[in-house]
Amino acid sequence: MGEKRVLILASVASMIDQFNMPNIELLINMGYEVHVACNFIEGNTCSNERINVLKNNLMKLSVKFHQIDFKRNVMKFSDNIKAYNQVKNLANDNKYKFIHCHSPIGGVVSRLVGKATKTKVIYTAHGFHFFKGAPLKNWIIYYPIEKWLSRYTDVLITINKEDYNRAKNKFKAKKIEYIPGVGLDVDKFQNVMVDKKAKRDEIGISEEVFIILSVGELNKNKNHEVVIRAIAKIDNPSIHYLVCGQGNLDGYLRNLSKELGIENQVNLLGFRKDIPEICKVSDLFAFPSYREGLSVALMEAMANGLPVVCSNIRGNSDLIEDGKGGYLVEPADVEGFAKYIKELISDSDIRIEFGKFNHKKIENYSIENVLCEMEKIYKLQNEGV
User: What are the residue boundaries of the Glycosyltransferase subfamily 4-like N-terminal domain, all occurrences included (predicted)?
Assistant: First the structure.
C-alpha cells in the first residue's frame, strides 16, 4: 500500500492546539505519518509561549509541521493565493492519503487544493457562519462558497444539529456526518479537586460571594456586555462576574462596568490555564454569545456540574435543555439574563438539579465517543470509500 501520510490543516495554530491534538494522536495510533499545516505566526488566539509548547508537543509525536501564510479574511482571495500555492506544493510533494481541514479559510484552500491534486478532503465545520438569525451578509458571502465547495468534499463533518440538517438538505458533499463536538476530556473536569477558599483567595474573592463565570474572548460575538448590564440591573453587591479571556474589548468592558457602578463586581482575568479549578469555585455559568458552533467552554462548565444561563442559539441549544440544565435567552435580552440569573441565585436547589443534569448529559460529548466516530471516518478514507 505504501506509506500512509495525512495532513491536518487549519488557518491558525491555536485551532490545532485547541481542537486537533486528539485527532493527531488517533491518526498516529492508526499507523499514519501525520503532517500539520497552519499559520504559527499570525492570527492566533493564544500566546506565543503556547504556540511554542504546541510545536514541542508535535515534535515529540514526530509530527512534521509547516508554516502556511493564511490571511484571516476569506474574501481576500488574492491574500490567500500564497497559502493556496504552499498547500498545493505540500500535497504534490507528499501525496497525502487525505487532508483533514478546519476553519472557513482552511476549508476553502484545502478543497481547492484537493480538487487540483486529486487529494481526498475531510472538512470539519466548527459552525457555519450562516445560521438561523445570522446577518444577511453572512448568507450572501459564506453560504454560496460553502455550497459550491461541498461538491469537492469527501466528508463534511458538522458538530451541531442545525448545521447537519442544512448540509444534508442543501450540500453536495460525498458524505455528511454529525459528530457531537470535538470531544471533551470529561474526566479531567469532573474529577478536578480544588480548595475553594484558597482558590477564591487567589482570585481575590471571598467565600460568601456568588460567582458568575464566563469563558471566551473579549469580543463582540462573545457578548459579555449583556451579562454586565444584567448584573447592574439585579443590583446585588454580593454577585461577582469573572471573565476568563482576552481581546480587544477589554478596555470597553472595564469602562462599561465603571459607568454602571459595578466595577468592583467585574473581574476580567485574562487568559487562564486553570479553567477547571475556576469552574469548581463558581456558582453559575453565563454564556451570551451571538454565534457558536458547539462551545468547548460551555461543555467544560457542564462537566463541572454548573447550571447555565446562555444565549438561545445554534450549538448552545444542542447542549442546554431549557428548564433542565439551565435557561436559554435571546442574546441581546438583558432583562432575560437578569431574570434567570436572579432566579438561580435565589434557589440553590434548582442550581444543584440543573448542575447534575448537565454533568450527566455532557458524557454524550466525551472525547472517547468523538474519537470512536472519527476513527470510523478515517478508516473509510484509507479503504478508498
Answer: 21-160
Residue 314 near residue 163 (C-beta atoms within 8 A): yes
What domains does the chain contain, in order, with CATH numbers? 5-182+367-382 (3.40.50.2000), 186-365 (3.40.50.2000)
Amino acid at 106: G
End-to-end Cα separation, the chain, in angstroms: 15
Backbone angles phi, psi at 67, to 5 degrees: -80, 125
Q: What single letter denotes the amino acid at residue 249?
A: L
Task: Report phi then psi at 52, rounded to 5.
Answer: -65, -35
- List the beta bridge partners of residue 110: none
Sheet holding 120-125, edge to edge: 64-67, 33-39, 5-12, 98-102, 120-125, 155-158, 175-178
Helices within 61-175 (DSSP H only) = 81-94, 104-117, 136-149, 161-170
272-276: average pLDDT: 90
- Predicted pLDDT at 75: 65
Q: Residue 205: CB partners within 8 Å, gap ≥ 6?
A: 211, 240, 242, 267
Angle subtended by helix axes 348-361 and 334-346, to nearest 10: 100
Residue 255 has pLDDT above 90, yes or no: yes
**Positive or negative CA dihedral for 108, 113, 118, 120?**
negative
Residue 47 has pLDDT above 50, yes or no: yes
Q: What share of the chain is helix, strand, coil (3-state, %, to 5)?
A: 50, 20, 30
Res 2: pLDDT: 41
Q: Do residues 78 and 50 touch, judged by C-beta distance below 8 A?
A: no
pLDDT computed for residue 313 by the predictor: 95
What is the C-alpha separation between 209 and 171, in angstroms, rounded?
50
From residue 92, give the alpha-carbon distance in Å to each of 11, 108, 117, 118, 119.
19, 18, 7, 10, 9
Q: Which backbone phi and psi does 292 adopt, to 5 degrees?
A: -145, 155
How is 35-89 classified by DSSP, letter by letter? EEEEESSSS-SS-HHHHHHHHHHHHHTT-EEEE----S-TT-GGGGHHHHHHHHH
The pLDDT value recorded for residue 385 is: 45
Considering only CA atoms, which of 370, 383, 376, 311 is closest in space to residue 21? 370
